[in-house]
Amino acid sequence: MAIALNLGFARMGARRELKKAAEAYWSGKTDREDLLSVARGLRQRHWAHQTAAGFSQVPSGDFSLYDHVLDTAWMLDAIPARFRSLDLADDLDLYFAMARGSATQALEMTKWFDTNYHYLVPEFTADQEFRLARNRQLDAYREAKTFGFPARPVILGPLSFLLLGKVKQSGARPLALLDRVLGAYEELLKSLQTEDVPWVQFDEPVLATDLDDSIRDAFARAYIRLAQCAPRLQILLATYFGSLRENLPCALRLPVHAIHLDLVRGPDQLETALSLAPDHVTLSLGVVDGRNIWKTDLARALTVAERAAEKVSGERIMIAPSCSLLHVPIDLSLEQKLPAAVKDWLAFGLQKLAEVATITRALNQGREAVRNELEANRESLERRRTSELVHDDAVRERLAAITKHDFARASSFPARKQKQQAVLCLPLFPTTTIGSFPQTAELRRQRARMRSNEITAAEYDGFIRNEISHAIAQQEKLGLDVLVHGEPERNDMVEYFGELLHGFAFTENGWVQSYGSRCVKPPILYGDVTRREPMTVDWWRFAQNLASRPMKGMLTGPVTVLQWSFVRDDQPRADTCFQLALAIRDEILDLEAAGCRVIQIDEPALREGLPLRKSEAPGYLRWAVDAFRLATAGVRDETQIHTHMCYAEFNEIVDSIAAMDADVISMESARSQMELLDAFAAYGYGNDIGPGVYDIHSPRVPSTDEMYTLLERALDAIPAERLWVNPDCGLKTRRWEEVTPALEHLVAAAIALRNKRPAHN
Ligand code: GLN
Ligand code: ZN
């Protein structure tokens, strides 16, 4: 008999209970027992949900107060010296110090594969020792048992754990630490075996990435040791986020009892797995998408499962979501405001569990047993496939009619630059900011009052106008060269545009963990995208009328909107992105017609869309760059197009950034001390650049000297006539008390630099 399996569950709670409890604890409003009891309650509730849905065994240890990679480092005692020397009496304080920093810098944070979840990067030393210091897995297992739930500990596997970490201050590879870390993993497994735990799950998502032979060999070595040290334990090896491809034979040779495959991202690997899997290995089929919110095509998933069962027998099959349900919201039934038609097409975490249960039952008892579920599912899918909300022929016709001219500006950059300079008359080292100004508590309060109809739209607009006037007056006083309106009307750079475009829906509770207690609520992009009417032109006009200097138009780019939304799965991502590009193109042309001379299209998420496999990167970059060009290339030479990117490794994609052909790019670079510019110089990047000179994540106000020094360094890589002066990113999370002096210093640094080179212009 096949069984239903779940790899992991979201932690936050459907109403973000964990966020609230953690933040209250951090701010000192509650004590640790309050936090731990909320966490316990959530685990119990989530286990109950899974059991009720028909899962005979639940994952344990998948819960985390902050991050599961940090939990693994914590468990194995990989605690960097700077935290140990804090001498914190309370273990929980030490844990949160590593997560969030305090007297010392927190662990670095980076993206978990290609998701929008961020994990804390384990820090190792070349002589790192590991030991089972805190057996959180055993604790979690016992807790589940006490509540009456048979559990399966979910453990980040040793190879993924090491490869996600960094060995500090030495060129050593994390892999060099394998033997040592395995000692600690062995201790863990032995303790679980002593407890009579039947199954453990090792998550090894690195198997879906490009690996070399030494890593594949290390996998074999590691799992032989793990299997031998606790022979009564059965191991489920979980892989996800893509096909294992050339790593699949290696995975199938490991001495484990079950292997989970992501068949949503990697359907191609099933046949190989069916023919190569040894007889004692059970295959867990990840046929329900754990990364998106659409209802599964149950009949199609079932066909896959039936095919597998026919080849290897139902005994050796498990049915599962493709990955942990960490990446989708918990419960669709909480949504009261979604259009009924759209809600009909969706499945969140709990609904996905029900889908897995249905497929499992159909496999075991025949399709007849779930006839009603299959029929209802087929009807939903059919309604979505034929819905007028989804399909707009005009959009398709327009896309079909675009030609290569739509992707290219009329002239090359040097010619454009001359014409733009004739209009804008900017000084050497022009100063500007990235778009947003402080979003004050008062602003958030007014927005909440507007949403709950406590104030009228007109009252809210009046308030926004005041904010804009204030931001402009400040900028004029500071003497910035290219101004912004400050974006007070936007609470989020994607949601704002999504709400104004056709094709998007918004949830009330569709939160997904981004990092720690931070959650995002991605819009749902369900249909062909069209712009109903100009979205930003009135605000821009209002702002420009108040200003004596050029006012930037501010838009979010097509790739970023795509990347930060749940997007449709019924057409290629590239097609959706091009539709977004056309809508933004129209907005840009309207801004230009209104007299806007500088338009910034933010693409901070361009880098994060990069596929996990190197071989797929060029294809993605091609359409992502094309989408940006399609959005921007319609303007006249005189109109200056800016773009902005931040908080990612851009070195490897400089050629693609160059291909975007923006007249000016502003980028975050203060924290890396302008390191990034070397890659731009080496490539021969020819357009204007504004490397950030002010780290906006810190409340610290950098001095004029500091920014001046950074600019001098930038001049080693970028010629003076192409260098702009700006902060790293938008200023919405800062306070005016920090922003005003910081920008004073920024302008002073630019002026000092100009004065040093009077002959130049
Ligand atoms: N224009 C946006 C802002 O200033 C850009 C934000 C971002 O890069 N994430 O807030
Ligand atoms: Zn930014």
Explain how this protein is built:
- With 761 residues, the chain is of the alpha/beta class.
- Helix content is 44%, strand content 12%.
- Strands 1-12-11-10-9-8-6-2 form an 8-stranded parallel β-sheet. The protein has a 5-stranded parallel β-sheet with strand order 17-19-20-21-22.
- α24 packs parallel to α25 (654-660).
- It is globular.
- It starts with a strand and ends in a 5-residue tail after the last helix.
- The site of glutamine (GLN) has 13 residues, from loops.
Fold blueprint:
Elements: E1 3-4, H1 17-26, H2 32-52, E2 58-60, H3 68-75, H4 81-84, H5 91-100, E3 109-111, E4 118-120, E5 123-124, H6 136-147, E6 151-156, H7 158-164, E7 166-167, H8 178-194, E8 199-203, H9 213-229, E9 234-238, H10 248-253, E10 258-262, H11 269-276, E11 282-288, H12 298-312, E12 317-321, H13 340-343, H14 349-365, H15 371-386, H16 393-400, H17 413-424, H18 441-451, H19 457-478, H20 495-500, E13 501-505, E14 512-515, E15 518-520, E16 524-531, H21 537-546, E17 552-556, H22 558-563, E18 566-567, H23 573-593, E19 598-602, H24 617-632, E20 640-645, H25 654-660, E21 664-667, H26 676-683, E22 688-691, H27 704-717, H28 736-756
Parallel strand pairs: 1-12, 2-6, 5-7, 6-8, 8-9, 9-10, 10-11, 11-12, 16-18, 17-19, 19-20, 20-21, 21-22
Antiparallel strand pairs: 3-4, 13-16, 14-15
Bound molecules: glutamine (GLN) and zinc ion (ZN).
Residues 434-436, 487, 493, 554, 602, 604, 644, 646, 729-730, 732 line the site of glutamine.
